[in-house]
Amino acid sequence: MTKGIWNKPIEKWGTTVHFHVPLIKGRLKRRLNRFVAEVEISGRLERVHVPNTGRLRELLFEGNTVYLTPVIKGKRQTQWDLTVVQSVNVLCAIDTRLPAQLLLEPETRKVLQLDSPDCKLKTEAKYGTHRFDLLAEDKQGQVWVEAKTVSLVVNRQAYFPDAPTERGASHMSTLTELTQAGGRSAVVFMLLRNDADVVRPNDETDPAFGQALRHAAKAGVMLRAIRFCVTLQGVFFDQEIPIIL
To answer: For residues 182 and 75, what is the distance between their CA atoms, to the nearest angstrom?
Structure first.
C-alpha cells in the first residue's frame, strides 16, 4: 500500500468500481502521442493505449511508475491500457471511461439528487449534436449529466481542464441553453485521486471553458465535484468537495 494517501479506513469508503483484472506495474519511457505511450514491463518495451487525451505532463513523464490493464488485443494495436499512475504519494486513475461507470454508483447518484427509486438512467445519451454521459428521468422530468475527469492537482487544488478543450466548453454551452429553456442539467467533476480539497476551472490553460462554466452556473446548471480514492483494486467514493469559480 502506498503511504500517506488514506484519510479513512478502507471499510469506511463508499461503493466502488473494481478493476476486473490485476493491474501490471510498469515504468513509463515516453508518450508517443495523445493515445499511445511506451512503457517498460518486466524489462521489455511495450506500446500501451493512453485512455486520456489530456496533457498529463505532471503524471506521464519518463521513469514514472504506471499500472496497466491487460486487454485482448483483437484489432487493437496495443494489448495494454494505461489505467493508474503514481503521483508522489497518491495513485491517480487517468482512464476517462471510468466516470461513466462511477455515475451509476449510489453515492454519486445521491450527490446529484438522482437516487430516488423511480429514477431511470440511460448512459451515452444524445442531445442534438452532443452525446452526454447520462440521462436520468424521474417524476420531475429529465436531467442531462456530463462528467469530467480531473487529474491535475497543485497545492491541494484540482484544476480542469489540463489542456484546452473546445468540446468541454461546447458541452457547457449546450447544458446552459437546455437549462435556460426550462430543462435540468448537471456537471460533475470527478477527481480520481484524493489529494485535493477543491476543484477550480483552469483559466490559465483554457479561459473559454472557465467562462462557459461560470455562465452555466448562473443559468442554473447543477455543479458538483466528487473526490475518489484510487487503489490497485479499484476506485472508491470518498466525498463531495467544493467548486470554486
So the answer is: 44
Phi, psi torsion values for 106, nearest 5 degrees:
-55, -45
- Read off the C-alpha cell for 119: 429514477
> Cell numbers at residue 208, please?
473559454
Residue 228 · residue 5 · CB < 8 Å: no
What's the pLDDT tens digit per position in 109-128? 999 999 999 999 999 999 88
CATH number (domain holding residue 20) = 2.40.50.580
Q: Is residue 2 part of a domain?
A: no
Q: Are residues 225 and 181 in the same domain?
A: yes
Model pTM score? 0.90
| Range of the structural domain that residue 191 is part of | 98-241
Read out DSSP for 175-219? HHHHHHTT-EEEEEEEESSS--SEEEE-TTT-HHHHHHHHHHHHH
Q: What is the pLDDT of residues 116-174, one digit of tens each?
A: 999 999 999 998 888 999 999 999 999 999 999 999 999 999 999 999 999 999 999 99
Q: Classify residue 180: in a domain, yes or no.
A: yes
